[in-house]
Specification:
The chain is α/β, with parallel strands linked by helices and about 240 residues long. About 30% of the residues lie in helices and about 25% in strands. It has a single domain, classed as LigB-like (Protocatechuate 4,5-dioxygenase, Chain B), CATH 3.40.830. Strand 4 and strand 5 form a beta hairpin. Helix 5 crosses helix 7. The longest helix has 16 residues. The radius of gyration is 16 Å and the shape is globular. About 50% of the residues are buried.
Length: about 240
């Protein structure tokens, strides 16, 4: 049995969530978003980071779009937030990086369900260093009005038992705020490591909310993809 917390953190400042098809990773992602229940009313800005899957990105790609659309409606893009980091050399506008990228857009229906009036600042991460990601996070960190979301799956296409072992070790590293060594552990290792750098500097508390794989949801056990949901809080709530 996994040692999961008895209750979710009350007011997460940051989340790590998976980004596969909803039938595979949706329940795991939901385990993170439900933790926003008590803080949702305050959140107005969601700063999102996810790995590039379709287009090569030199470091971090922002979008020039005015909004992203889902079947639940339009989500405004926070131009003020993006403008605030455009002076950083690692940030560029690259709409091609966002056009076919799924890792951030699949998070939007969850956010539209749990939040009210909010805008997103989406960044696709390519060849950036964790420190470069962390710098963008620091600039946009804000207060209770700002939520940080990192999108990443865990291991890919391993047998069920091996995936469980590797994902458990990866989850332990994240909760202990130890940077990941390999992208085989998580496709979003770079933005995860950026968040972990910030978490260490700011002494955030990391919690594992859910840890499963596609073999636990809608897939077979021969070749699975791992999924984890994590929350980071700025202090422990009673």
């Amino acid at each position: 049995m996994l040692a999961l917390p008895e209750r979710a953190p009350a007011c997460p400042k940051a989340l790590i969530v998976p980004h596969a098809g909803y039938i595979y990773s949706g329940p795991i992602a939901a385990s993170a978003y439900v933790a926003l229940e008590k803080s949702a009313a305050a959140i107005r800005r969601v700063v999102m980071f996810g790995p590039a899957h379709r287009v090569w990105v030199s470091r971090l790609a922002a979008s020039s779009a005015g909004w992203f659309a889902t079947p639940l409606g339009k989500v405004p893009v926070d131009r003020e937030a993006i403008d605030a980091v455009m002076h950083l050399p690692q940030v560029e506008i690259n709409d091609d990086a966002h056009a076919q990228e799924h890792c951030l857009e699949v998070q939007l229906p969850f956010l539209q369900t749990v939040l009210d009036d909010f805008a997103v600042a989406p960044f696709v991460v390519g060849g950036a260093s964790p420190a470069e990601v962390a710098e963008v996070m620091d600039v946009l960190w804000g207060g209770p009005e700002t939520l940080i979301v990192v999108s990443s799956d865990l291991s890919h296409y391993l047998p069920y038992g091996e995936a469980q072992r590797i994902d458990r070790a990866t989850a332990d590293s994240i909760v202990e705020r130890r940077l990941l060594n390999r992208h085989e552990q998580a496709c979003g290792a770079t933005p995860i490591n950026g968040l972990l750098e910030v978490a260490n500097r700011r002494s955030l508390v990391a919690s594992l909310l859910d840890l499963r794989n596609s073999g636990d949801t809608a897939g077979d056990h021969a070749r699975v993809v791992g999924y984890g949901a994590f929350a980071f809080t700025e202090h422990e709530h009673g």
